[in-house]
Amino acid sequence: MSSLLDYEFCARTDMGRVRSNNEDALAVCADVRLIVVADGMGGYNAGEVASAMAVQVLEQEFGAWLVAAGREVDVTLIRETLAACVDRANTDILNAALAHPEYAGMGTTLVVGVFVRDRLLLGHIGDSRGYLLRGKQLRRITRDHTWLQEQVDSGLMTLQDARHSGMRNLLTRALGVDPQVRLEINEFTVQADDLFLFCTDGLTDRMTDQDLEVLLRDPSPLPLLAERLLQQANALGGRDNTSVVLARASAAAAGMVRR
Predict the structure, then answer these.
(1) What is the pTM of this model?
(2) In which region does residue 103 sit, left (phi positive, over 0), alpha (psi from -120 to 50) or beta (all else)?
(3) Which end of the chain has fewer surrounding CB within 10 Å, N or C?
């Protein structure tokens, strides 16, 4: 029998110190334990259109489906429905780009997660990330869909070289760019006291995983941790928009029934 867990969420976004608009979009649907984070790209503010469209489809369609499905829904069915909703978002963004020349070439990264009892189902496209802090150890639970990550994976480049490369933002996957979208979906077991971070690259371009681990080890309330993450990204230059969602699991009170 799976453990009963409660979840607390906090979401924050910041424009940064350089950009004149915010192309990130995010949503938290606490009632169904759904988080969505997107980082748009494209000229003429089209990036913010793409990210907003992606978040809207996932929040409204996938979120509504989770409500209707109820607490005992099978995880396999959740995976299938998530993939279908991401396909719908991909098609909507492509069609909008075709209908509006000023949106040509727009797209977005995506991280979408849903906590189901003591499991996290996590889908992602691009270089927005997910992390898990368990105990005092931080682990990245997404793999960047970038040219640099492919170079590192093939042994052609070290992590240190990749961090200082001028090719850091060259994506190999994005939502709304091609007719067929490749959503990577993974599943994780959740334990009480686990802390999850979902973020755009405005944070991870400024801070190393070691920096994030030190900050997230602080047992402060989630709103304070989220603000510190944004402040640190800005203190290190704030060259991009930065968005974070934090989720903390805790043991449910005795006698309480949880989704």
Answers:
(1) 0.93
(2) alpha
(3) N
